[in-house]
Design a protein that fits this description.
ten-stranded mixed sheet; 9 helices; 10 strands; Rossmann fold; alpha/beta; 19% strand; globular
Length: 270
C-alpha cells in the first residue's frame, strides 16, 4: 500500500548523517563482519566510527594481539571507504560492559547478531542481548543481509515511535533503499491518526519520494518480523520504551532484535 498522504510541493532529500558518532564492537562472533560493514555504510563520509575490542586475563598478550589485528583491519577497511575511523581497546572481562560504559560519547552502538535465543543470551551475557537490554543509546544488531535490500520502520503511531520512523527514513535516504512504514494496529488506533499522518509526511518529505505503507495486526513483535520477511528487508527499525527488570520480558524491540531475519536497529524513546 502506498503512502496515502499527498505529495509535497517541494520535496527534499535527507543528507543528514543519522548517527555522527558510531561505536562498533569487534569480537570473535560470526556477525562481526556484518557489524563492521554496516557501521561503515551508515557512517558515510560525514560520521566517524570507533572500532572497539577487549582483552583480559591469562594469555592476555595473545588476546591483545588478536584484538589489535582485528580492529586494525576494521579501521583500514573503513578508511579505504573514505570513513573517519579509529581503534579503541578495553582491558575488561566483558566487552559488553565496556561498551555500555563508553556509550555516553556515541550516538549508536553496532554489534553482530548471535545465534542463541533471547533468554539464553541473557543468561550467557552475550553482547547483543546485553546492549539491546541495557544500552541508553540506539543499538544496531547486524546480520548478513545487506541493509540496502530495504528498510522497514515500525510504528504504533505513538509520538515515542517517531524517532524510529525518522531514523529509518534517514538511513533509507543514505543507502538509496526503499522505505516501508509498518503501522502495527492497536485498539485505540483511531485516536492516533494525526500522529501517523505526521510521521508519514515527515518521512515522505525527507525522502523526496513516496513511501510504502502497510498496516499489520496481531502481536506487535510477530507482525513486525513477518513484515520484514514478506518485504525482503535488510533492516528493521523499531522503537523502545527502554524497559528494565521483569517488564523487559514483554519488550517488543528485544523480541524483534532476536527474531528478525535481518539487521535490527533499536531506537530509544525521548
Amino acid at each position: 500500500m502506498l503512502d496515502p498522504s499527498p505529495t509535497p510541493h517541494r520535496p527534499r532529500i535527507s543528507t543528514h548523517p543519522p548517527f555522527p558518532r558510531i561505536l562498533c564492537a569487534v569480537d570473535d562472533g560470526a556477525g562481526t563482519d556484518a557489524a563492521i560493514e554496516q557501521a561503515i555504510a551508515l557512517a558515510g563520509t560525514d560520521s566517524r566510527v570507533v572500532f572497539a575490542a577487549n582483552w583480559y586475563g591469562a594469555g592476555s598478550a595473545e588476546c591483545d594481539a588478536r584484538a589489535h589485528a582485528a580492529v586494525d583491519r576494521a579501521v583500514a577497511q573503513a578508511r579505504e571507504a573514505g570513513v573517519e575511523a579509529r581503534p579503541e581497546f578495553f582491558h575488561s572481562p566483558r566487552l559488553g560492559d565496556a561498551l555500555l560504559d563508553a556509550t555516553a560519547m556515541n550516538d549508536l552502538v553496532v554489534v553482530g547478531a548471535h545465534s542463541h535465543a533471547r533468554v539464553t543470551g541473557i543468561v550467557l551475557g552475550e553482547i547483543a542481548t546485553q546492549l539491546v537490554h541495557r544500552c541508553a543509546v540506539p543499538v544496531l544488531v547486524a546480520r548478513e543481509r545487506p541493509m540496502a535490500s530495504g528498510v522497514v520502520a515500525a510504528t504504533r503511531a505513538w509520538p515515542g515511535d517517531r524517532p524510529a520512523v525518522t531514523a529509518g527514513t534517514h538511513i533509507a535516504a543514505r543507502l538509496g533503499a526503499e522505505l516501508t512504514v509498518v503501522h502495527v494496529l492497536e485498539r485505540d488506533n483511531g485516536e492516533r491518526r494525526a500522529e501517523l499522518h505526521a510521521e508519514l509526511a515527515n518521512a515522505r518529505a525527507l525522502l523526496g519520494r513516496p513511501v510504502d505503507y502497510y498496516q499489520q495486526s496481531g502481536p506487535a513483535a510477530r507482525a513486525i518480523v513477518e513484515a520484514a520477511q514478506d518485504d525482503g528487508a535488510g533492516l528493521v527499525v523499531v522503537g523502545s520504551d527502554h524497559r528494565g527488570g521483569l517488564s523487559a520480558l514483554a519488550s517488543v524491540s528485544e523480541r524483534v532484535a532476536h527474531l528478525a531475519p535481518c539487521s535490527v536497529l533499536v531506537m530509544r524513546g525521548k
